[in-house]
Design brief:
This protein is of the alpha/beta class and 206 residues long. It has ten helices and five strands. Strands 1-2-3-4-5 form a five-stranded parallel β-sheet.
Length: 206
């Protein structure tokens, strides 16, 4: 969450083995609070959202939260105010995604830790065909992700080289209408941007 923002992002790196080994988790199952280990993530995320909303904030979570929630169980269901970051484009699309607010951050297109070519990023269309007007309104935007925990992105130089100039392509995907985007035109303009980055001593990747 950035200063002044009303949105708080949460994520879970917890495995089923960790839930299973946790004695407090097992207590919740034993008391009948949740039906089993596979329901714990949705339960905790729902509790976290209640805390976030009580403080006037809005929760945004990774798409696993949408998959794990149980719409029929209030204690395991996020509110309609929650938003989601869709990153697992290599898996089946989560049900109900287009009926909730969401941010497009697909792993195979917009993860800058990986050497995705700039033309592949530029050709990404976050809004799929066939959405209703109401569903189109739920798309909040796009996000380019980079995880600085990886050794090759920990230095300032490594970080810059991972995001530039590919961040420029992400900007156009997010801010330019599909019918106005043109790869040849972008490639021509990119030369000027790369010269500016060079003058600013910004490290650039391929």
């Amino acid at each position: 969450m950035t200063r002044g923002s009303d949105v708080l992002a949460i994520g879970f790196g917890t495995t089923v083995a960790m839930w299973t080994a946790g004695y407090l988790c097992q207590d919740l199952i034993g008391q009948g609070v949740v039906a089993g280990v596979d329901r714990l993530q949705a339960y905790f995320e729902t509790r976290l959202e209640a805390m976030v909303r009580a403080r006037g904030r809005r929760l945004i979570a990774w798409d696993e939260a949408l998959v794990s929630e149980d719409p029929a169980t209030p204690s395991e269901r996020l509110s309609s105010d929650a938003a989601f970051m869709y990153w697992r484009d290599f898996m089946t699309l989560p049900a109900r995604l287009y009926d909730r607010d969401w941010v497009a951050t697909p792993f195979t297109r917009l993860y800058l830790d990986y050497p995705t070519k700039i033309d592949r990023i530029y050709s990404y269309e976050p809004e799929p065909d066939g959405l209703t007007q109401a569903q189109r309104a739920h798309l909040l935007g796009v996000e380019g992700a980079i995880w600085t925990g990886y050794p090759n992105a920990r230095s300032d130089e490594g970080f810059e080289a991972h995001i530039f100039p590919r961040l420029l392509a992400i900007a156009e995907v997010g801010w330019t209408a599909r019918e106005q985007r043109d790869l040849a035109d972008f490639t021509r303009r990119l030369e000027g941007h790369e010269r500016r980055l060079e003058l600013l001593a910004v490290h650039q990747g391929p």
